[in-house]
Amino acid sequence: MFASADEPLALLVELTPKLAKKRFREEIYKAWDGRCGYCGEEATSLDHIVPRFKSGSSNCHNLLPACRRCNANKGSEDMESWYMQQDFFCSDRFKMIKKWMNRNIVSLFPDDLEWLKPGLTEA
Questions:
Q1: Alpha-carbon separation of residue 42 from 34, 55, 57, 59, 101 (angstroms)
Q2: What is the per-residue pLDDT across 12-42, written as a single tens digit (0 to 9) for each?
Q3: What domains are defined for the chain?
């Protein structure tokens, strides 16, 4: 029926909710080579970068592979302040996390929303 199992329509028709969740999680681990986004050790869980407790979502941009130690240690703390205090803090890894969080943000308006800046909305 479909040319390949990776066609979007095939995935919608043939995936059970359980399998869809599994693939969703696998793709996040795969994007980080199965390593903790914070310390680089083997990842065993997914961490909400912005905790659910603080209205963080469960979309892929807010989920980061983490080792058990980092996930438990960070808890519901702010990622930036927590991460910068860690002995294993790495500025390159921090930039990768920030890029991951913002990777699919699309500007809906021309000129990067220039029209929202103060003074530009006045006639």
A1: 6, 27, 24, 22, 20
A2: 556 688 888 888 899 999 999 999 999 999 9
A3: 1-31 (no CATH), 33-116 (1.10.30)
